[in-house]
Prior knowledge:
Elements: H1 2-9, H2 16-33, H3 38-44, H4 50-58, H5 61-65, H6 70-80, H7 86-100, H8 104-114, H9 120-126, H10 132-141
Helix pairs in contact: 2-4, 3-4, 3-6, 4-7, 6-7, 7-8, 7-9
Amino acid sequence: xxxxxxxxxxxxxxxxxxxxxxxxxxxxxxxxxxxxxxxxxxxxxxxxxxxxxxxxxxxxxxxxxxxxxxxxxxxxxxxxxxxxxxxxxxxxxxxxxxxxxxxxxxxxxxxxxxxxxxxxxxxxxxxxxxxxxxxxxxxxxxxxx
Length: 145
């Protein structure tokens, strides 16, 4: 993981497409074999580098989709709420949406609990698979103000 982080810090993966490709071909398979590496991602959520932070969420989408390590997924998503970059919001929403595939109720409760702290882009990605009426309710209940 040290080498992968160094690649990111040196901007050898300097856009969302190469970063996400790195996740799907290298990082995610590595984490599936060594789930203890997820603990490093919790630290990566606080990194100054946008790509390091993005990997902390995107690398877990496959695990989240299978309902694995959901406590970690939700912890990482929450840690990413405060960043301003749209690419972080999209990654956060993506991993949350995939976590909701196996436990929709848990995702809904998480979204309601965190309400207006969730960036709207992340929220919209997270709720894509909900029925239209539930999406509308969640958007209203989590609106700031």
